[in-house]
Amino acid sequence: MGITTLADGITRRVGDVADALTAPFTDQVIRLGVTGLSRAGKTVFITSLVANLLNRGRMAQFHPAASGRIDAAYLQPQPDDTVARFAYEAHLADLTATSPRWPEGTDRVSELRLSLKVQPNGLLGGLQGPRTVHLDIVDYPGEWLLDLALLDKDFATWSAEALNRLPQRPASEEFTTQLAQTDPAAGFDEPHAQALATAFTAHLRTAREAGFSDCSPGRFLLPGDLDGSPVLTFAPLPAVDSPARKSLWREFERRYESYKRNVVRPFFRDHFSKIDRQIVLVDVLGAIHAGPRAVEDMRHAMADILGSFRPGTNSFLSRLFQGRRIDRILFAATKADHLHHEQHPQLTAIAEALLRDAKDRADFSGAQTQAMSIAALRTTVEERRSHNGADLGVVRGTLLGAGNEAAFYPGPLPSDPRHLLAPAREGAQDWLDADYEVMSFAPAPLTLKPNEGPPHIRLDKAAQFLLGDKL
């Protein structure tokens, strides 16, 4: 263990002890992490959740709201002045405009504090005044989350895994061609290093657009102010026996370790390790549409990501002696409004099966986990249509980009998730007996009544699992 890692651990542990000792004398704070991979809907989820906690008319299954125990909810300045504020008002304006549009996705860490005045329940509830609970919502770019799995991998291990994935993914030819002309044991050359990194980054971008999930290192896709820096100028290389100190392999190994030390570890230390509750948003329908290999890739990516969550029971003593732990994790299959409600159980079952390995690990360590199908913003209405003599449950909405309405039936999801996961694990290129389609719907124009947030599917159930016991 390096000195920096040890110091980070000690600092975090001291902070956790201080938090635990002062907690009984301060307002309660819940830090909710919202994470997921690209296009899973993190920005829309946070915007709709906050809007529906401020105006709770659609939160019937969120018990503190349904029972009337939340007296007030209001936004406050966040406690961390060094983290960008989540642009809630701008995102809500996008979704509620006369011609609504989807807001821009997440490209950095952001935070928002929502404070709730809550009446205590129980026998003494009537004798006590309302208490304040602060909900700090932290939004992470899903691409950066992929990097957490790198902390336990050296350069040789990561390179071997990345190179093994190339044949199953699109647009790897340019990088593969350049790699074939490269001698990793040769002396380091900066222009050649930049060309390799550029080709590898282009491959990652194409793979992400094609529906693949595990596209690490994540900062290659969202570099921010690190764009063009040496810490982002490396690529996977074949193994070399005893490479020389100034070889390409050694320099890429050094930059990979620098990436973990200077980019990944601070992200984990400053943000990720402080989470109490976590929701993981997963675009299961998008992966199914992309094919068996994308489904298997998503399973691997989510298992790697969730292995970094440090889940467990977040009691006073566990926080005092072990540091903060995530004690509830919700796995949410998004875009449930793209399916008729009669197919929602199948979508939930597939999400549970897809994340089974990671979920079992979290359950074993003491965290409570649950999976459900949600739509943070409902964009469609349900109908029944007759097609070739069959009565089908369809959804109707406005097609993104086209502007016209269309009724959509994606195909029947299997009741047994193994019918999807088995060919995915076996490396099948296409689904043999089905063709699953996905439509992109635009947000529907909203007319909200007083005390109503945006329409959703099971957002209130998600809030109940994540926050209900704390309120």
Describe it:
By secondary structure, the protein is α/β, with parallel strands linked by helices. The chain has two domains: 3-140 and 271-379 and 446-470, P-loop containing nucleotide triphosphate hydrolases (Rossmann fold); 149-267, no CATH class. 38% of the residues lie in helices and 16% in strands. The chain has 16 helices and eleven strands. The protein has helices spanning 3-22, 42-54, 63-66, 88-96, 142-145, 155-165, 173-180, 190-209, 248-270, 284-290, 292-306, 316-322, 344-354, 356-364, 418-425, 459-467; strands at 28-36, 70-76, 84-85, 110-118, 131-139, 277-282, 328-333, 368-373, 381-387, 390-398, 405-408. β9 (381-387) and β10 (390-398) form a beta hairpin. It is globular and about 75 Å long.
- Average residue pLDDT: 86
Helix % is 25-40%
**What is the total tally of β strands?**
11
Low-confidence stretches: 16-24, 315-322
Q: Which secondary-structure class do the elements indicate?
A: alpha/beta
CATH superfamily of the largest domain: P-loop containing nucleotide triphosphate hydrolases
Shape: globular
How much of the polypeptide forms β-strand, as a percent range?
Answer: 15-25%
Task: Give the name of the CATH architecture of the largest domain.
Answer: 3-Layer(aba) Sandwich
Reported by name, the CATH topology of the largest domain is Rossmann fold
Kindly provide the name of the CATH class of the largest domain. Answer: Alpha Beta
Largest sheet: 8 strands, mixed
Query: What is the terminal separation in angstroms?
Result: 40 Å
Number of helices: 16
Order of helices and strands: HEHHEEHEEHHHHHEHHHEHHEEEEHH
Over all CA atoms, what is the radius of gyration? 23 Å
- Count of discrete structural domains: 2
